[in-house]
Write a structure and sequence with these properties.
By secondary structure, the chain is mostly helical. It is built from five helices and no strands. Helix 1 packs across helix 3 and helix 2 runs antiparallel to helix 3.
């Protein structure tokens, strides 16, 4: 299997949601999925009994799906924004390397 990139995922989700979905509708699904991540974590960490209804990895995948979908239908280039935001955070918090530098070293 090829590596999945934000660009490919965004193109796919833009096609999938090109009609009939609003940012608000996708955001409501995102909030629902975040709640399911909380349920999975509570079960994994023993704060709630494990019903087996929630899988952390699947719920996290759903959170990413709806986050990227919202960006896609709003024409936001997540790769670009993540790199820019990380560069600002690296300066603000005096962290090295920043994500862009890390990618250059590891690609």
């Amino acid at each position: 299997m090829d590596k999945l990139t934000f660009e490919v995922l965004q193109n796919y989700l833009a096609l999938k949601y090109k009609e009939g979905r609003s940012s608000t509708g996708l955001f409501m699904k995102l909030v629902e999925e975040i709640g399911e991540v909380a349920e999975a974590l509570n079960q994994l960490e023993g704060r709630k009994s494990n019903t087996g209804d929630f899988s952390l990895e699947k719920e996290l995948a759903d959170v990413i799906h709806y986050t990227v979908a919202i960006a896609s239908i709003n024409n936001i280039d997540l790769s670009k924004v993540i790199l820019e935001k990380d560069k600002i955070a690296a300066i603000k918090y005096n962290q090295s390397p920043n994500l862009e530098e890390f990618l250059k070293r590891n690609m």
